[in-house]
Every structure is written in structure tokens, then in C-alpha cells.
Design goal:
Helices cover 71% and strands 4% of the residues. The two termini are 29 Å apart. The model has no long low-confidence stretch (mean pLDDT 85). The radius of gyration is 37 Å and the shape is rod-shaped. Strands 1-2 form a two-stranded antiparallel ribbon. Strands 3-4 form a two-stranded antiparallel sheet. The chain has a domain of 197 residues: Up-down Bundle (f41 fragment of flagellin, N-terminal domain). Helix 2 packs parallel to helix 5, helix 2 packs antiparallel against helix 7 and helix 3 packs antiparallel against helix 5. The chain has nine helices and four strands.
């Protein structure tokens, strides 16, 4: 095959076009900060990028679930503490009212105090977090208890995925906190009645029931507190995993700026050298072919 001058010229033009394309890619990498903008640029790297960023998105969702769960559980723990405090105060009142020296008048005053504690307990039982009922089970848009202390929620559990294959239950229902075992509202109502009736024996008989209510709440606090610690530990582990994952994403996706700048300068030097060489070999300018 005879190599003509025009074929040589065309070959040099093709080389210069490739150099221009290479410079354009390097400039794009520098300006965008990313090594791959299109799948065709580097299929293997692009595929890794999709997998790594998908893993990061899943990790972020798990961490969000864990943080949301901890916030919900901490709000529940604060409400449990308030509820137990109300029952503890009612027990102190019961001890005062159970003594043989307590008068009808003093017991009537204690009954008023217990009635206020019942109101506080109801308010605590209807606590909300971000507009959602804490103790209503899955019925989060309505109050967990009516004004008479009747439970209006359900026994539904709220779970969150906090890591691959790992979940947590973040809620306690009003049924298990205030109703199961001893009905906290009924115990306070019975205490109020006994005090108003000036019945020290009946007041004394209510002390074990008050203790049972507090014991139930304390057990739930301890269990939920342990779950908070577990989820917080998982969240910390997710934070560490994210640091490592972001480093891998950066290594795969981000442009190595010093190297890219040097490569661009070398490519530009090669491009200018090619233009000068072509101009010295031929009488016409190769720029005519590049138009």
C-alpha cells in the first residue's frame, strides 16, 4: 500500500484530535473534581462508584434511623421518669395518709394533691415527640389516653432498621407502661377515694399497689435505657464505617488534582509540539483540517 502525503496528514490530524480530547477530559476532571463523569470514561471505575455510593446511601439511612430511634427512646425515658416521680410522690402522700394520727382534714388535703398528680400522670402519658404520641403504639396522631384514663392507642410496635440485619424497637405502649399489672390511673383514683373517705386502712393497703406500679416503670426504664446504649454503639460504629467508606469513594471518584494538573500540562505540551511538527513538515497548516 502506497502511503501518500495526505494519509500522513490525516494521521497527524487524528493524533491531534485525540490529544484535544485527552486535554478536554483532564480539564473536565479538574473543574468537576471527579474522575468519571460518564460510564464510557471508565466503566470499571463508574461501576465501583455506583456500588460505593449506594452503600453510602444505605449507611446514611441506617444512621438516620438509629439517631431518630435514640431521640424517640430518650424522650420516652424522660416521660417514664416523670411518671415514676408522680407515683413516688403519691406514695409519700399515701404514707402520710395511712398514719393513725392523720385527721380527716389532712387526708382531704392529701386527696387534692393526689388528684393533681393524676392530672400530671395523664399529661405525661399523652406526651408527644415531634407531634407524635409517644405511648400510643402505632396510633401516633391521637392522644394515647382519654381524659378518664382509658387507653386509646394500640399494642403496635415501632421498629427501625439500624444496620444490615439489625433492628431496634423504639417505643413502649401506654398499655404496658400504665395499664398492665397495676393500672396506674386506677391506683391513684382508689387512693384519692380512700383519702376522701378518711380510711387509713384502705390507704395503707394501696402501698403495695403503688410499689408495683413504680417497679413496672423502673423495669421498663432499665430495659429501654439498655437499648439506647446498644443503638448508640451501633451509631458510633456506623460513623466509623462512613469515614472508611467516604475515603474509598474519594479514592475512586475524586480527581487527583496534582497529578491531573501535571498530566494536563504534559498533554498541552505534546499538543503544541504536534502542531509545530506538523507545520514544519507541510506547507499548509493542519489547523485547516481541524476546522
Amino acid at each position: 500500500m502506497r502511503i501518500t502525503e495526505k494519509m500522513i496528514q490525516r494521521g497527524m490530524v487524528d493524533d491531534i484530535h485525540r490529544q484535544i480530547d485527552a486535554m478536554a477530559r483532564l480539564q473536565d476532571q479538574i473543574s468537576s473534581g471527579k474522575q468519571v463523569r460518564n460510564l464510557s470514561d471508565d466503566p470499571a471505575r463508574a461501576t465501583r462508584s455506583v456500588a460505593l455510593n449506594s452503600a453510602h446511601a444505605a449507611l446514611m439511612q441506617h444512621r438516620h434511623n438509629a439517631e431518630e430511634g435514640v431521640s424517640w427512646m430518650n424522650a420516652t425515658l424522660a416521660s417514664l421518669s416523670n411518671a415514676r416521680s408522680s407515683i413516688q410522690t403519691a406514695r409519700v402522700n399515701a404514707l402520710q395518709g395511712a398514719t393513725g394520727t392523720a385527721s380527716a382534714e389532712s387526708r382531704a388535703v392529701l386527696a387534692i394533691a393526689v388528684d393533681r398528680l393524676s392530672g400530671q400522670l395523664l399529661e405525661t402519658a399523652n406526651s408527644q415527640w415531634n407531634g407524635s404520641s409517644l405511648f400510643g403504639g402505632n396510633k401516633t396522631t391521637t392522644a394515647a389516653f382519654s381524659t378518664t384514663g382509658a387507653y386509646q392507642g394500640d399494642t403496635g410496635t415501632m421498629t427501625r432498621d439500624i444496620a444490615p440485619g439489625e433492628t431496634t424497637q423504639i417505643n413502649l405502649t401506654g398499655q404496658e407502661v400504665f395499664i398492665n399489672g397495676e393500672n396506674a390511673f386506677q391506683v391513684l383514683a382508689d387512693l384519692k377515694t380512700a383519702l376522701n373517705n378518711n380510711d387509713g386502712t384502705a390507704v395503707n393497703a394501696l402501698l403495695p399497689r403503688l410499689d408495683a406500679v413504680m417497679s413496672q416503670m423502673l423495669k421498663l426504664e432499665a430495659s429501654l435505657g439498655a437499648e439506647v446504649k446498644r443503638v448508640e454503639t451501633t451509631a458510633e460504629r456506623l460513623n466509623e464505617l462512613e469515614v472508611n467508606l467516604l475515603a474509598r469513594i474519594s479514592s475512586n471518584d475524586d480527581t487527583d488534582m496534582p497529578k491531573a494538573i501535571v498530566d494536563l500540562q504534559n498533554a498541552n505540551n505534546l499538543y503544541e509540539a504536534s502542531l509545530k511538527t506538523s507545520a514544519s513538515l507541510f506547507n499548509i497548516s493542519l489547523l485547516d483540517y481541524l476546522q
